[in-house]
Specification:
Blueprint lengths: L3 E9 L5 E10 L2 E6 L6 H8 L7 E6 L2 E2 L4 H5 L2 E4 L11 H11 L5 H14 L15 H12 L6 E5 L7 H14 L4 E6 L2 H7 L2 E6 L2 E6 L1 H6 L5 E6 L4 H7 L1 E8 L2 E7 L9 E2 L4 H14 L4 E3 L1
Parallel strand pairs: 3-8, 3-9, 6-7, 7-8, 10-15
Antiparallel strand pairs: 1-2, 1-4, 4-5, 9-10, 11-13, 11-14, 12-13
Helix pairs in contact: 3-4, 5-6
Bound molecules: adenosine-5'-triphosphate.
Length: 300
Amino acid sequence: MQTLEIRSISKSYSSETKALDNVSLHIPQGMFGLLGPNGAGKSSLMRTIATLQKPDEGQILFGDIDIHQNPQALRSQLGYLPQEFGVYPRMSAFELLDHMALLKGILSRKQRREQALALLEQTNLYAVRNKAVGTFSGGMKQRFGIAQALLGSPRLIIVDEPTAGLDPQERNRFLNLLSEIGENVVLLLSTHIVEDVRELCPRMAILAGGKIVLQGEPASLIQTLKGRVWHKTINRDQLPHYQKTLSVLSVRLLAGKTQIQVLSDYQPEAGFTLLEPDLEDVYFSVLFGTQSTGKEISVC
Ligand SMILES: Nc1ncnc2c1ncn2[C@@H]1O[C@H](COP(=O)(O)OP(=O)(O)OP(=O)(O)O)[C@@H](O)[C@H]1O
């Protein structure tokens, strides 16, 4: 069983921006969720693992391959769906997949055809295999993106923000596809959507400001907030007061009313009731905590 070992990776693009700051992660077989807000450094980490850029410091091992010492060895086992996935819009799905298979080094025409058709079947695109990829919906394009990432049966699959912009039905379909694939490979899913991780990933980490600020199993992380998340319905004009005096994790508008969720070890005041915490509370509490303490939490 192969694992991905990220050891103290740092990457700067300029003297002002440290996109990755001493990132270390142990990623076993299965799905691993990397959650973080825009600008956290997720794509920088994905591109570094995909050997598209070198880190300034640190080392990444996939099994016993040092991926920056031997990028070719990694690339032959890698499937990558980048955040911006461009296609040749006029080519049909089958033609393009066949072409990409050739670029990936699958020289036998018969093998390419078999793999392309099997992957189009797996990603539910078989019926539209002869249609131009440029006519596909967002969800179909993302499924095509996964099909190309799976060419050559990779052992390490990286998908960067794959569900952004998909409608709920397509998102579900896409996540189901990922969970099927994720059982027998190392699959790294980068996202800013908390539900993607909650629904799919037995292990996860949160990246903020280029640093890993929390990692562990979603259920254990949620457990740490039990008895500490409170909610109350308030008047909208009271919000600044609560934001100033309490750790407000989130503000929701429900049927015209304003509901706040607050992190506190005790009931902050009358009218607050306890909530069953979820992964979103974990995420917001960590981002909130990072802004105030910058500490890393690890619950395994
Ligand atoms: N090629 C680049 N040149 C200069 N700065 C960059 C480059 N790529 C990323 N950055 C900067 O590095 C930081 C991390 O960006 P990155 O794209 O890795 O974050 P992200 O978590 O993927 O965010 P998003 O989801 O918005 O893409 C940001 O401050 C970004 O502006």
